[in-house]
Amino acid sequence: MMSSSVRMAIEGTGAHVGAPPAWLRRASDVRFVGISERNNCDTVLHLQAPLLGEAAEDVYSQSTFWDTKPSPEDTAINVFARVTREVRQGNPDSTLYDLHLLRHLSHTKRLFQHKLLSMEVPDNAETAEFDREVAVRAAELTQRTPSPRQVRVAGHLDMIRHSTRSFELLLEEGKAVRGVLEDADYLDTLRDLLGAKVVVVGKAVYRPSGSLLRIDAQAVAAGTGESKLFFRVPPPIEHRLATVRYRFGEQARRGVPGFFGTWPGEESDEELLGMLKEMRG
After folding, report:
1. End-to-end Cα distance, the chain
2. Side-chain-side CA neighbours of residue 29 (13 Å)
3. CA separation for the pair 170, 158 (Å, rounded)
4. Alpha carbon distances (Å) from 44 to 47, 80, 112
5. How far apart (Å, rounded) are the C-alpha atoms in residues 27 and 53?
6. d(CA 273, CA 265)
7. pLDDT by residue (tens digit) across 236-251?
8. What span, in angstroms and rounded, lies between the C-alpha atoms of 148 and 207?
9. What is the pLDDT of residues 177-218, one digit of tens each?
10. The pTM is what?
């Protein structure tokens, strides 16, 4: 999870497409070096992790790209602490995690099923609590996150970062859109098209709030003559809805009231169904 957290912060995606880059392997090389106890009998694990600025020197030598890029003095442990804190707060518009990372965090609930209650993860002068509540919140955010959808988006290629296969697309309305190439072979194409109008085909990835997080680009080409319909990113097809739970009272309710509750009007179920058919044409 530390590796995914670092990749999310620097590259803009928590998922691994192919082999992880060398800088990511170095940055997430967290090692256990010892154990001790505090006066209150808490167990302290001693970990060793490289500074991100040293492990990913090539990445940090370039200009800042994502606003989530950690300080070069941070480590993977610091980044994971911030992700943990943000998930606990349940921020639906966070740029620190995506669906892939949330799913990983939701599966950590089993760590706290027995004697382990919580862990304090250091973040410089602060700490973040990593416990069952974080896993529960991650599961809730996962349920709220819309599924990715296939899109075709046109705009001006405004920025490229070779080391992380990342780019920025500027739409006609002036909105900047993040993108990550799934295939590094398209980097040469990006270099040739920098500053020009392009069309990107890929998957739109959304935040739990439904706003766009990034585009996982499968192909990029010149966008001259592209329809204006594609100069915007379409919204998610649907939000994931929470599971509906039925409450059984003394008498089972049927029809529209049984599903939604008491209907405020006087129409019968048949009349309401007829209205819906008319709306659908």
Report:
1. 49
2. 13
3. 6
4. 10, 17, 17
5. 9
6. 14
7. 986 554 444 445 444 4
8. 10
9. 989 888 777 788 888 888 889 999 999 999 999 999 999 999
10. 0.76
Which CATH number does 149-230 carry?
A: 2.40.50.140
Amino acid type, 26: R
Provide the token pair at 145: 């996150």
Instruction: Note the pLDDT tens digit of each residue in 88-110.
Output: 999 999 999 999 999 999 999 88
- Count of positions (residues) in the chain: 281
Could you tell me the residue ranges of all domains in the chain? 2-144, 149-230
Q: How far apart are CA 83 and CA 63, in angstroms?
A: 23
CA distance 181 to 165: 5
3-state SS of the chain is: CHHHHHHHHHHCCCCCCCCCCHHHHHHCCCEEEEEEECCCCCEEEEEECCCHHHHCHHHHCCCCCCCCCCCCCCCHHHHHHHHHHHHHHCCCCCCCCCHHHHHHHHHHHHHHCCCCCEEEEEECCEEEEEEHHHHHHHHHHHHHCCCCEEEEEEEEEEEEEHHHCEEEEECCCCCEEEEEECCHHHHHHHHHHCCCEEEEEEEEEECCCCCEEEEEEEEEEECCCCCHHHCCCCCCCCCCCCCCCCCCCCCCCCHHHHHHCCCCCCCCHHHHHHHHHHHHC
Cβ–Cβ < 8 Å for 78, 100: no
CA gap 6, 81 in Å, rounded: 11
Please work out, in degrees rounded to the nearest 5, the angle formed at the alpha carbon of residue 167 by the alpha carbons of 196 and 201.
Answer: 75
CA dihedral 95, 101, 102, 107 (to 10 degrees): -160
Question: In the numeric block, which tokens belong to residue 161?
Answer: 């970062």
